[in-house]
Structures are given as structure tokens and as C-alpha cells.
Amino acid sequence: MLLNLCPLWLGLSALGYLVTAGGMGWRALALTGFYHLGAIAALPLFLIGQFLLTGLVMASSLLFLSVLQWDHH
């Protein structure tokens, strides 16, 4: 179970971001969702640091969303 924890966590987060972006029409959330999907693709390159990469992706996503000007109407 621990071997699949990082892709599972990033995948669930990506799904949540993409569904929310689709429902609300916010491009920033869609970009964040695709960023998480890209991180899942990069996980096999970081066999030892998968948890570190996952944490960095999660933290940078939250930082990105906190400083970004929301594109709501």
C-alpha cells in the first residue's frame, strides 16, 4: 500500500482540482490538476524521494493557488 500512496494521493488531488475546475470554470484549478498529473508521470524517476516530491508538489500547488489572482467572473 505504501508503494502506491504517492500516486494515489496526487491522483485524488488532481481529480478534485479538475472536477472543481470543470464545475466552476476556473483555469487555475485545471492547471493545478494537470500539474499533479504530470507529477504522477514523474514519480518513477524519483524512486527514493517520492514522498518528498509529492510533498513539494502539494505545497507548491497550494502556494500557487494562494498567490494567484482568481479568474472568477
Write the layout of secondary structure elements.
Elements: H1 5-24, H2 27-42, H3 50-67
What can you see in these coordinates?
The relative contact order is 0.18. The chain is mainly alpha-helical and 73 residues long. The protein has helices spanning 5-24, 27-42, 50-67. The protein is globular and about 35 Å long. Helix 1 (5-24) packs parallel to helix 3. The chain has one domain (2-67).
Question: How far apart are the termini?
Answer: 42 Å
N to C succession of SSEs? HHH
Low-confidence parts: none
Q: Helix proportion of residues, in percent? A: over 70%
Number of helical runs? 3
Task: Tally the structural domains.
Answer: 1
The biggest beta sheet is recorded as:
none
From the alpha carbons, calculate the radius of gyration and give it in angstroms. Answer: 13 Å
Shape: globular
Strand content: under 5%
Concise synopsis of the structure shown:
By secondary structure, this protein is mainly alpha-helical. It has helices at residues 5-24, 27-42, 50-67.
Write a concise keyword list for the protein shown above:
73 residues; mainly alpha; 3 helices; 74% helix; globular
